[in-house]
Design a protein that fits this description.
225 residues, alpha/beta, Alkaline Phosphatase, subunit A, three-stranded parallel beta sheet, globular, alkaline phosphatase activity, Alkaline_phosphatase_core_sf, EC 3.1.3.1
Length: 225
């Protein structure tokens, strides 16, 4: 499992948001010797696919930062959605009986105090996968399409969509279409507001006053105009 949301997994004494004294990341790591917690890009880059190793990547306290923000700032503090997808597939391909991978382009890993509690043995009660999914399972939580659309930031939203598209493309490149089912879906639609009256030759991004003029980024303009 990889994404943001480390604050939900850590006690306040470790700059987390939990008030129950539970550190989910540390408790999870104690469950077996083959578990590794990834907290930054250095940890992420050091991972080499290995059979039976379980990974928990928590790269930011809450949502992962917008990739476009990091690009404009000349910084990269977290892996991209498509990079986490590659890492997950490389890891899961060691499984002889196949695997189930969820790549989610919104929100962060969230373990609330209501959902994760201590039991009588002071160990963590983790949410179990459905019995039908007996093969290894991984979850990648990355892009923040929904959040950018809530804030009406079109540049950011489209770049997040492009990142999601790259994750799908990488997954198709790394798997055999004859034995792999890839489903792309959404749990709800969204809307963006286009204020004013745009000329036919004007980009819709003109309504986003935070990023004018259009930044020189690697998101193909012909895909989003």
């Amino acid at each position: 499992m990889m994404g943001g949301g480390s604050g939900y997994l850590m006690d306040k004494s470790r700059n987390g948001s939990r008030s129950d004294g539970l550190n989910v990341d540390l408790e999870w790591q104690k469950l077996s010797d083959n578990r590794r917690v990834l907290r930054n890009m250095l940890d992420f880059d050091e991972v080499i696919a290995a059979a039976n190793e379980k990974l928990l990547g928590i790269f930011s306290p809450s949502h992962l930062p917008y990739y476009l923000d990091e690009l404009l700032a000349g910084a990269k503090t977290v892996p991209l959605l498509w990079e986490m997808t590659i890492k997950a597939i490389e890891q899961l391909q060691n499984e002889q009986n196949g695997y189930f991978l969820v790549v989610e382009a919104v929100l962060e890993i969230c373990a609330s105090e209501r959902n994760l509690k201590r039991n009588e043995n002071e160990s963590v009660r983790l949410i179990q996968c459905p019995q039908a999914l007996r093969n290894p399972m991984a979850r990648i939580v990355g892009g923040t399409i929904d959040i950018a659309e809530h804030e009406n930031m079109m540049h950011v939203a489209f770049k997040e969509v492009y990142d999601f598209e790259e994750a799908i493309r990488k997954a198709r490149e790394m798997t055999d279409a004859n034995e792999t089912l890839i489903i792309v879906t959404a749990d709800h639609g969204h809307a963006l507001t286009l204020p004013g009256y745009l000329d036919s030759d004007e980009t819709i991004f003109g309504s986003d006053s935070t990023l004018l003029p259009f930044p020189d980024v690697d998101c193909p303009r012909d895909r989003v105009q």
